[in-house]
Amino acid sequence: MARFTPVAVLSLAAGLGATWLGVRGVGEVPPLGALLSPAVGLWINTTGDLPAQASANIPGLTDAVDIRYDTRSVPHIFAKTDLDAVRALGYVVARDRLFQLELQARAGEGTLTELVGDVALPADQETRHLGMPRSAEARMTAMDTTGMLYGILRAYADGINAYRTSLSTAQLPVEYKLLQKTPREWLPVHSMHLLNRMGYTLAHSPLELDLLQARALVGDSAARAFWDSSSPVQEPIQPAPRSASREALASLPAPGTPDSAAARMVAALGAQSGPLLWTRDATLPVNQRADVQQERAFASNNWAVSPSRSANGLALLAGDPHLELTLPSIWYEVHLVVPGVMDVGGVTIPGLPGVTIGYTRSFAWSFTNTGADVMDFWRETVNDAARPTTYELDGAQQPLETRVEQYRDKSGRVIATDTVYFTHRGPMRKQGSEWLSMRWTVLEAGSELLGFYQGMRSATAEGFLDSLATYYQAPAQNMIVADTAGTIAIRSTGRHPIRANRGRGTEILDGRTRANDWMGFRTIAQYPQSVRPAQGYLASANQEPIDPQYDSLYLGTDPHYEIWRALQINRLLRADSSMTPDKMRQFHTNPGSVRADRLAPALVAAAKARIAQGDTSKSLAAAEAMLSAWDRRYTRDNTGARLFETALGRVVMLLWDEFIPTGKDAALVRPSESRLLQLVADSGSAWWDDRRTTGVREDRDMLLARALVAAYDTLVVDFGDPAKTPWTWGTVSPAKPRHLLRLDGFSAPNMPIDGGRGTLNPSVGSRFANFGASWRMVAEMDAQPRIMGVYPGGQSGNPASPRYLDRLAMWGNGQLDSVRTPRTPADLSARDLRATLTLTR
């Protein structure tokens, strides 16, 4: 692409000032003179990308390590010992992703201000108030420095630092030049910080205040119907003994009298117009926070098919974790071989010393997020409301632990200081006039890497899952696996709390007694799971892990989960008993949508009903015609999906007026979209009435038609007359992989794709959020497994490298590349070889 030429780099640098000011978190405009220097500036980043032959030294290596880069730029690491393989892994990851390593670790450590400036202060304060750096440091302090885990972390750090110290100023990644910083030393604790950051990303969804605020607005019964009940449609991860989903579309209780006790608590928490301080995106305005949280929906999928339902009699597995689309990608593809010890490949997260999702010679695996409720809150009674030193517990005063947190800017100057308090449960923070403490499984994890290293030595699917379950605590994941013997299996692995009195994690509890503490955790036998299912396939897509009809022990409530993709993938798998790897590949970007199939007809029917009753709106007639003609498939060239999505957004804005506090103009909370299924089946539900209008009582058809007209008129303003400029989906809703610092010059161009919200490829791009399939993989488990995979972007983190975006087109078109799996260096043919690297002491 043109941006990779020296001329393009010059143009980028010349225009950098304007771009820089629009990016949050990157500080002042850098001096352009240094950036334009031919000796040390941006020019040098366009040269010497991946030399055909290279050698380097890593202190501590016990023997030479041979690394072969294939034509896909994947390093195949051939080492004599596992720790040498880990040292080499650290080196090659740093070679391609050094800046990303530091940025991600600092995000989990709460020290972003030291890299990008004080604009990152709110993010750092949130991280430290959650107790994340304290947790990581405590793990390292308690870690046996002679044990396996410390050895892995130390070896990985040695590899990263060997590359880091080999760099001259001219060779630094371009981001360091822009920020006028140099890479810091990588320490073993930085991997612990990154683990916590992943926990924050995947297991941080407290809903206690949502329920409390809803109770204060619509009463206890109505609020609990939305926030303290299971999903109305059940297609669980652990297969239920039936051949279809279970629907419970009972009428929802009408809005009731506000709960006065809840209202008093909301007032005491100072939360009449915002979330808990612990909540993600707490500093954003209400409407933006709701948009980000909806778009963030980490819509990962994985599924596996037994030999009995595959065309070639082999087990098949597919996975595509959906995370933020960044450049460079969150993933880095690797392959490690230590004869007789390991032969494992797949993708790693830069900063974590191991393969997170991938394959061995015996099995392949993938993850989706479980979404379980693993964070609870207690209302504490302290001795001093302003500067507490103790808290009440079982009739006695217990001392609070305090930790003074200092935040520094890029020059090292202290720019803020906080005191963070801790009870025996975890961090404590003042919310309004109350003090709340929190317990979170993420802060108690840390042995997950051992599970991976033990698991990849297994020979069977069950052995892999059992190894992970022994060590893996958080964030809880739906781990699916298929092996060469034909076994497929899944388990929702991670620590799932058991509350006092078998309670639910939906209330803020009284902290004055240990009787309200967690009582323990589900045993591994109690995890939702299935091995060799009778139905011949398994699937997870962030839905409820187990049907509560068969296991009532609390895992979470409807807002923790999503139903649409689970319904779609199960629909596809049930319909085909002769599955192939290529069909699995096509499923990744299948544009079909149960969500659209269930909700679009309701919009069309409402429009037709209103027109039959005499509504003469031209916009309504045009919108009805457009939606009626739409096949409800999110292909990139369809012209109906944009209207459907905008109309649903308008429905939500009109529907949930009951959750708008007096004097405000936006709903504090919103029920999950799955509740629309219950409402469209109940045309006269009180929820359809918009209390902001006078002299009219809206029913279902009236409100849906009003939303459809508003959506159509909005899109005409935004995109023009659809008869002249069609609202083509790929144009108005493209995927947008963006650079980690949000620099437009380093981001990818908009990418039209098939898929949308509720499909198996629910990529979402907006000015607030940008999420999609971060890695796609299909594995055919023959005696020699055949693996295909792709992610958006490329192996290099250097925007001037031809390896920065070389996978994006394949990803956008739903294609997969064949993964090379050589057993020895000699197995990688000359035509598949791109470069070699030899590492010695």
UniProtKB/TrEMBL annotation:
InterPro entries: Ntn_hydrolases_N (IPR029055), Pen/GL7ACA/AHL_acylase (IPR014395), Penicillin_amidase_A-knob (IPR043147), Penicillin_amidase_dom1 (IPR023343), Penicillin_amidase_N_B-knob (IPR043146), S45 (IPR002692). It comes from the Bacteria. The keyword Cell cycle does not apply. Transmembrane segments: none annotated. Its cofactor is Ca(2+). Residues 229-257 are annotated as: Disordered. The active site is at residue 300. GO terms for molecular function: hydrolase activity, acting on carbon-nitrogen (but not peptide) bonds, in linear amides; metal ion binding. One of its GO terms (biological process) is antibiotic biosynthetic process. Ca(2+) binds at residues 208, 373, 376. Keywords: Calcium, Hydrolase, Metal-binding, Signal, Zymogen. Binds 1 Ca(2+) ion per dimer. Belongs to the peptidase S45 family. This is Penicillin acylase family protein. It comes from Gemmatimonas phototrophica.
